[in-house]
Amino acid sequence: MKNHSTPMARLMPVWAALLSCLMFLSVPSHAFEKAFTQAELQEQLNKQTLKFEHPLIQVTITDPVIHLFDDTQKLQLSGNVDMNLLGSYSGKGSLTITGKPVYKTDSTSFYLENPDIIALHVAEMNPDQVDAVRLTLNQALKQWLKSVPIYTLKDKTLQEKMAKSTLESVSIRNKSLVLDFSLL
Question: In this structure, which of 7, 44, 126, 136 has its CB flanked by the most CB atoms within 10 Å?
């Protein structure tokens, strides 16, 4: 029996396979994303007291409030502060800090990049003392947060195990913290 198919017809399976490969390769680099709204993050923060301990300064932040900013890709954390500097300056007041949340795949940890104290008020200190404390605290905080993650993914839950192997990046969109995951 003679095959009457044209050369073009014989190439159809090859073209179909090539088209399938091209469609697969055109899939975005992240397969899915998970967003946490500002309200969801706030709910988690409401359960915590934040502590920063450094040889020079001890700071406790209570009643933390979080804000997410799309335009700068930064988060802002404000709250009541109780602080002690070298045992000589202490007081209560308020603190506002900003920074960019980042994820580092090598350590499977989240960090706050370029943290900056944008406001510090302490009732028991005069303005000059507050400025000096803010500068010292800012430097200590920047050094500390370079090496200390704000959260490290663990192997305790299946979700965190999966996130460790597929999480690629963190961004802020629509007042939500967005986690981008890659294909497995």
Answer: 136
- The answer to whether residue 9 sits within a structural domain is no
Neighbour-count burial of 155, counting CB atoms closer than 10 A to its CB (0-12 exposed, 13-18 middle, 19+ buried): exposed
- The count of domains in the chain is 1
The 10s digit of each residue's pLDDT in 28-67 is: 444 688 888 899 888 888 887 888 888 878 888 899 899 9
Q: Which domain holds residue 125?
A: 30-182
Residue 73's CATH number: 3.15.10.40
Q: Which helix (H) or strand (E) holds 125?
A: none
Whether pTM > 0.90 for this model: the answer is no
For 99, residues 6+ apart whose C-beta sits below 8 A from its C-beta are 74, 75, 112, 113, 114, 115, 116, 145
DSSP state at residue 174: T
